[in-house]
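Q: Here's a chain of 345 amino acids. Please give me its 3D structure as tokens.
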Amino acid sequence: MSSFQKSEKNLPLAAVWLVSSIAEYKGKQELYSNQSPQILKALVEMALIESAESSNRIEGVTVDKSRLKPLIIGHSKPRDRSEQEVAGYRNALDLIHRKHKSLEITPETIKKLHELSHGGAHDAGHWKQKNNDIIRKNPDGTVEVIFRSVSAAQTPKAIEQLCLAYRHSLDQGQYPDLYAAACLILDFLCIHPFRDGNGRVSRLLTLLALYHHGYEVGKHISLERIIEQSKETYYESLQKSSLHWHEGKHDIEPWFYYFLGTINAAYREFANRVGEVKSPRGAKTDIVVQTIHSQVGEFSISDIERACPSVSRDMVRVILRQLQKEKKIICLGKGQSAKWKQLGS
């Protein structure tokens, strides 16, 4: 049943390239931290907002854009159930960022992450009491079972065995660390131990496992946002790798490639955000300027706001006007929906 029972130990060639790329980025983490502390501080704030927003939005939970920063950075009191879940996810992220060194991956930790990220629900922090197959609703209204998860009765034991198998694989050096982390997340999602909120907990577990192996990119770049932006591929890779999972005849590679690609994309963005900043301007100003320069074709203020959630609209406007004055961009209209474009593009 478990991915850790499979005999594969050697990585495919394409996976080796991705692992090597990630390892190279990992080696530069301390260099970035020493060179650009203000940029990192701004990125941490931005990643918190994006992670809490994206992970919940993947599950269909949304809140008003104007409420995100007060909820996540300002610790504003939630007004409704959706805001509770976003604030709860923030609390779970905060726990991992602060205590990852002492926070082992155990059934108790998994239940704690669910309790925080699913706060307010009657069963937050409790294993499912009923079986919950993974279904797909078709356009014609029919419902299709695409995966039968582990039964409610078998769930506590399955999670305990998963945590033990993961720890054993690391202690014995059975698998490369990123491969073991990918197996952990795949098996967790196949067990599907909670009534609701399994996807959110899986993303929190990903962050925690990466911290344990020294990959700190999730603190500065939102892995959840990258997953949301590629969610079709995310679901496709999960579906492929979960096929025949119960019989232990599943193919881990589709999920493993997606897992590695997500981490590599995060590190690439991290390098671009931190490594290329050389001006004496403020950290948030630099991030906005980089975002503007990365736009292809026409863009709006809303496009920049979405990419820089911790920056106010007023600040974005000021930077746009300054770049316009420097003749680096041009405004193509008037009002809130006005489009902008880089000169020469």
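Q: Can you summarize the key feature?
A: The chain has two domains: 3-275, 283-342.
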